[in-house]
């Protein structure tokens, strides 16, 4: 490390970057519901589209004020047709894309490699709710035409398997761009998603790129890693002086250690799921509905939207309590973020800062073991910090302590036993052990959770079980590809011949993270 490079990442330089970033944060454009008012509400309430996200993503053909004026003047006419009005004043940017048809003569790896260009988008100018990004990116597919946060890491695994490192680097730079612009990485580059993030896999993206370009990448993105950490820890300094032990995404545990939760600061229906949220909340009093909207939005930030893990009553969405919960997976990912920051500081010979983040990571790991490990079940469980007790829900989130390497060998043995006995099914690992109709519950299996469990088990030497999970999951993917000529976002792992189901929208194909994880797993067979 040269003296010049060491100076480049000194304490003063990083502080200067962070403060200048905060000063340059952009005020986002209004989300469609805020901009369109009554028109947006009327379209969603009248179910003009089966999927509410479609209208949220449409691009106005004219200025918003003009559209509002036209609507006010024409909506009460007996001949008025709301669907025709929308067609005249908005257009679908994705309708310009040609329909992809699978070539049955291709191998699965060839099919995936071809899909990268099909799912690629370049958006250099804002269009409607879509926020421009400087570099091309791969979308999940289907209804999702944006660069989604945690999806992107699993997409990158496949891009790496196919040697598309330029695309990976561009997507990492897009994430850094959003950190610089907004102070955090939103769920995706949409104006209506700027109140929440997603599971923080940014450090994993940086380390993946570093595996190709060397540890100089850690130095390049160190300020952005610190910026993401500041976002999740915002308000943690004021908690010891407060009676309420949570602020934003920070939670003070009984022993004084700060852990984190998923949280969305807005107390309103989600823009893209307005009708669904209004139906869930129903006629409860305003003070309760505001809190329920916050929990629903926080559940969306978790990526597990929705699951019984967030509910008091597994079969009643009205009992959702996401923001009252310290989740295992989130805190494992933040442990890995702390470790990555420490690793970057170690690399540039800044031992004081490295030691600080190593200590923070160690404290987090110990607190997770103290409050989330349940010896009676042999599993980790999320924690209700208001109630001072575990939720008791058994989910694949318990694989994250293996993935982050914070479990003891004893805990790893018990987790592996339970995964094999209760979660492993014919098609792979089921997400939970209860069937509720929510998509992040049984019988569904999801690519990112298979990857986390497989890698986590390998960390502790359970290679035979990891191989069996991989074999069953890969077979499920390939059987569906041979039968339906497509890869989809989730699969029924209990009855692999049946499609994944549940949730607020139809099963989507495409599908970014399924493609990425499958490509990475198939590469391992080599």
SSE topology:
Elements: H1 3-8, H2 11-23, H3 32-36, H4 38-45, H5 52-57, E1 59-60, H6 64-74, H7 82-89, E2 90-91, H8 108-119, E3 120-121, E4 137-138, H9 149-161, H10 165-182, H11 202-213, H12 216-233, E5 246-247, E6 250-252, E7 258-260, H13 274-281, H14 286-301, E8 325-326, H15 328-347, H16 351-372, E9 373-374, E10 379-380, E11 383-384, E12 389-390, H17 400-403, H18 409-423, E13 424-425, E14 428-429, E15 444-446, H19 447-459, H20 463-484, E16 490-492, H21 512-525
Antiparallel strand pairs: 1-2, 3-4, 5-6, 6-7, 8-11, 9-10, 11-12, 13-14, 15-16
Helix pairs in contact: 8-21, 9-10, 9-11, 9-21, 10-11, 11-12, 11-15, 12-15, 15-16, 19-20
What is the beta-strand fraction? Answer: 5-15%
Whole-angstrom Rg: 23 Å
The N- and C-terminal alpha carbons lie at a distance of 36 Å
Count of strand segments: 16
Report the mean per-residue pLDDT as an integer: 93
Low-confidence runs (pLDDT<50, min 5 residues)?
4-8
Biggest sheet, spatial arrangement of strands: 5-6-7
* Count of alpha and pi helical runs: 21
The dominant shape is globular
Give the helix proportion (percent range): 40-55%
Structural class by secondary-structure content: mainly alpha
Main beta sheet, described?
Answer: 3 strands, antiparallel
General description of the model:
With 526 residues, the chain is mainly alpha-helical. Among the domains are: 1-30 and 116-232, no CATH class; 31-96, no CATH class; 394-526, no CATH class. It contains 21 helices and 16 strands. It has helices spanning 3-8, 11-23, 32-36, 38-45, 52-57, 64-74, 82-89, 108-119, 149-161, 165-182, 202-213, 216-233, 274-281, 286-301, 328-347, 351-372, 400-403, 409-423, 447-459, 463-484, 512-525, and strands at residues 59-60, 90-91, 120-121, 137-138, 246-247, 250-252, 258-260, 325-326, 373-374, 379-380, 383-384, 389-390, 424-425, 428-429, 444-446, 490-492. The two termini are 36 Å apart. The model is unreliable at 4-8 (pLDDT under 50).
């Amino acid at each position: 490390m040269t003296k010049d490079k060491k100076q480049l990442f000194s304490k003063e330089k990083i502080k200067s970057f962070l403060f200048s970033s905060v000063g340059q944060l952009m005020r986002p454009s209004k989300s469609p519901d805020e901009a369109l008012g009554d028109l947006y509400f009327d379209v969603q309430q009248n179910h003009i589209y089966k999927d509410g996200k479609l209208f949220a993503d449409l691009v106005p053909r004219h200025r918003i004020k003009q559209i509002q004026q036209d609507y006010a003047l024409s909506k009460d006419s007996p001949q008025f047709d709301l669907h025709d009005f929308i067609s005249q004043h908005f257009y679908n940017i994705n309708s310009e894309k040609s329909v992809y048809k699978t070539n049955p003569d291709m191998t699965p790896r060839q099919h995936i490699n071809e899909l990268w260009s099909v799912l690629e988008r370049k958006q250099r100018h804002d269009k409607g709710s879509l926020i421009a990004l400087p570099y091309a990116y791969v979308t999940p597919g289907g209804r999702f035409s944006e660069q989604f946060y945690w999806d992107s890491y699993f997409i990158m695994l496949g891009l790496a398997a196919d040697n598309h490192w330029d695309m990976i680097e561009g997507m990492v730079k897009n994430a850094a761009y959003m950190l610089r612009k907004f102070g955090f990485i939103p769920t995706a580059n949409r104006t209506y998603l700027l109140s929440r993030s997603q599971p923080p896999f940014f450090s994993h993206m940086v380390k993946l790129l570093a595996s190709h370009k060397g540890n100089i990448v850690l130095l390049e993105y160190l300020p952005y890693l610190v910026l993401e950490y500041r976002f999740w820890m915002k308000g943690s300094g004021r908690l010891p002086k407060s009676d309420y032990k949570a602020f934003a995404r920070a939670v003070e545990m009984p022993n004084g250690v700060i852990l984190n939760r998923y949280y969305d600061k807005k107390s309103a229906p989600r823009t893209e799921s307005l009708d669904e949220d209004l139906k869930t909340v129903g006629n409860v009093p305003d003070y309760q509905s505001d809190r329920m909207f916050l929990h629903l939005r926080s559940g969306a930030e978790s990526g597990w939207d929705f699951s019984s893990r967030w509910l008091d009553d597994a079969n009643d969405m009205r009992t959702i309590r996401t923001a009252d919960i310290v989740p295992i997976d989130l805190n494992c990912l933040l442990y890995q973020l702390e470790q990555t920051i420490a690793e970057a500081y170690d690399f540039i010979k800044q031992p004081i800062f490295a030691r600080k983040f190593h200590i923070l990571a160690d404290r987090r790991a110990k607190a997770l073991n103290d409050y989330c490990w349940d010896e009676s079940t042999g599993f980790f469980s999320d924690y209700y910090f208001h109630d001072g007790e575990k939720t008791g829900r058994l989910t694949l989130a318990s694989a994250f302590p293996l993935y982050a390497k914070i479990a003891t060998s004893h805990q790893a043995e018990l987790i592996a036993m339970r995964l094999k006995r209760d979660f492993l099914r014919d098609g792979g690992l089921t997400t939970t052990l209860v069937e509720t109709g929510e998509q992040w519950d049984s019988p569904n299996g999801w690519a990112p959770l298979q990857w986390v469990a497989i890698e986590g088990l390998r960390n502790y030497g359970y290679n035979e079980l990891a191989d069996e999970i991989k074999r069953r999951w890969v077979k499920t993917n390939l059987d569906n590809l041979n039968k339906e000529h497509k890869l989809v976002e989730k699969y029924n792992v209990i009855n692999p011949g049946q499609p994944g189901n549940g949730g607020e929208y139809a099963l989507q194909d495409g599908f970014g993270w399924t493609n990425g994880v499958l490509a990475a797993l198939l590469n391992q067979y080599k």
